[in-house]
Amino acid sequence: MSRTSAITTDQTKVCTLPTGLDKGRLPSHIAVIMDGNGRWAKSRGLPRALGHRAGVEALKTTLRLCSDWGIKALTVYAFSTENWSRPEDEVNFLMALFERVLQNELESLQNEKVRINFLGDLDSLPRRLQQLIEEARNLTAMNKGISFNVCTNYGGRRELVLAAQKLAKRSLNGDLDPDMIDENIFASELFTASLVDPDLLIRTSGERRISNFLLWQLAYAEIHVTDVLWPDFDEQALSKALFDYQSRCRRFGGLDPMSSEHHHL
Ligand code: IPE
Ligand code: IPE
Ligand code: MG
């Protein structure tokens, strides 16, 4: 039986960085809201499920490219805490798809030294999926390649509430003085504790909203919205997002370091 693998198969040759991109100014961490699977399917007269399946292929391509181009971390939004409100058969299909893909791809992720993690409130996922997640996490934990994070039953508000609960418990236990809670201690209780904040957020399918994704972590991310529907997201679309990113001036509340304005106050 033939099995497609995450970032190998026919694409074993390494993809080179598009000319014109500055290797030294790539984002360390890219976050992606993979949206538009349903519309992609609808525009072809196909059931939504096939849009989600095609979305998996776009994800494999994106992971491969990010890994080859030297991006350190890729964090993708696969299922939000609000997505449970979809019809039961779509939710069930997605859970089964996550299981199948994870099972089939684990070996090639391992071969490519990908460190895979799942971020979100994982306790309410199907048992079997939870087991696979645990297995994948443990197997790849020491890998030195790209850090690949899949947000599943993830909600930014849920994450912040859970962090607040953990801090409150530590305080009640006497382990933590509430006055000592600062941004670093708070961030250390988030699902993303070991990750730097994303430098670039990509949202596909033209929607200009965050949809409860990484509310804390996106504080200073550059935002690239593309009309491309997620299943059509490819090398050209990723390259466009990176050129857009490199055209931005990141000030973090300060002044443009390249401009001389501040010498003339
Ligand atoms: C994103 O595609 C995938 C998930 C939310 C699971 P959608 O399913 O939201 O696709 P559209 O927005 O309906 O086109
Ligand atoms: C955001 O997409 C969630 C994921 C991509 C998993 P949605 O399709 O759920 O977002 P809304 O409903 O358009 O805001
Ligand atoms: Mg959507």
In short:
This protein is α/β, with parallel strands linked by helices and 265 residues long. It has 7 helices and 6 strands, in the order βααβαβαβααββα. It starts with 28 loop residues before the first strand and ends in a 19-residue tail after the last helix.
Descriptive account of the structure:
The protein has a six-stranded parallel beta sheet, with helices on both faces. By secondary structure, it is an alpha/beta fold. Helix 4 (127-140) links the parallel strand 3 (115-119) and strand 4. The protein has one domain (30-246): Decaprenyl diphosphate synthase-like (Undecaprenyl pyrophosphate synthetase), CATH 3.40.1180.10. The model is unreliable at 1-6 (pLDDT under 50). The protein contains seven helices and six strands; from the N terminus they run βααβαβαβααββα. One 3-methylbut-3-enyl trihydrogen diphosphate is lined by residues 34-39, 79, 83, 94, 205.
Labels describing this entry:
265 residues; alpha/beta; Undecaprenyl pyrophosphate synthetase; 6-stranded parallel β-sheet; 6 strands; 13% strand; binds 3-methylbut-3-enyl trihydrogen diphosphate; binds magnesium ion
